[in-house]
Amino acid sequence: MKKLLLLLTFLTTVFSFAQDAIILSQENANEKGISPIWPKCEKSRQSPSQCFDQKLRTHIIQKFEYPDEALDEGLSGTVTIEFIINKKGKVEVLEVTGGHRYLQLAAIKIIRAIPKMKPGLWGEKPIAIAYTVPITFRKPQ
């Protein structure tokens, strides 16, 4: 009986900790309709995920700056940046790949400038949603 009680206690603890670390991908969040809500998307006629995607594209275009160092060295390339909108609605950069370091830093700056928003919800609980975005830097002609 003690072994059974110990096993149940262990399993309950494992499951309660596991639920705190749930991170859904953008695709899964969109399927389940639990995307984070970008500021001013509550009043949009689009779905929250469509509005989020549109606002993210617009944000990247508006915040895009080609780094001077990259221009001087003639650097170009695509930087892929993985980030989450955490349970508090804030951006956290997880991984950055591709491109030169100068381009990576510029991409991080763009993503970190994403405004705080309402987090995605799993039932009544806030949940982190992961996104992967490629940002292409082409040398101006």
UniProtKB/TrEMBL annotation:
<protein>
    <submittedName>
        <fullName>Energy transducer TonB</fullName>
    </submittedName>
</protein>
<dbReference type="GO" id="GO:0031992">
    <property type="term" value="F:energy transducer activity"/>
</dbReference>
<keyword id="KW-0732">Signal</keyword>
<keyword id="KW-0812">Transmembrane</keyword>
<keyword id="KW-0472">Membrane</keyword>
<comment type="similarity">
    <text>Belongs to the TonB family.</text>
</comment>
<keyword id="KW-0813">Transport</keyword>
<dbReference type="GO" id="GO:0055085">
    <property type="term" value="P:transmembrane transport"/>
</dbReference>
<keyword id="KW-1003">Cell membrane</keyword>
<keyword id="KW-0997">Cell inner membrane</keyword>
<feature type="signal peptide">
    <location>
        <begin position="1"/>
        <end position="18"/>
    </location>
</feature>
<dbReference type="GO" id="GO:0015031">
    <property type="term" value="P:protein transport"/>
</dbReference>
<keyword id="KW-1133">Transmembrane helix</keyword>
<dbReference type="InterPro" id="IPR051045">
    <property type="entry name" value="TonB-dependent_transducer"/>
</dbReference>
<feature type="domain" description="TonB C-terminal">
    <location>
        <begin position="51"/>
        <end position="141"/>
    </location>
</feature>
<dbReference type="GO" id="GO:0098797">
    <property type="term" value="C:plasma membrane protein complex"/>
</dbReference>
<dbReference type="Pfam" id="PF03544">
    <property type="entry name" value="TonB_C"/>
</dbReference>
<dbReference type="InterPro" id="IPR006260">
    <property type="entry name" value="TonB/TolA_C"/>
</dbReference>
<dbReference type="InterPro" id="IPR037682">
    <property type="entry name" value="TonB_C"/>
</dbReference>
<keyword id="KW-0653">Protein transport</keyword>
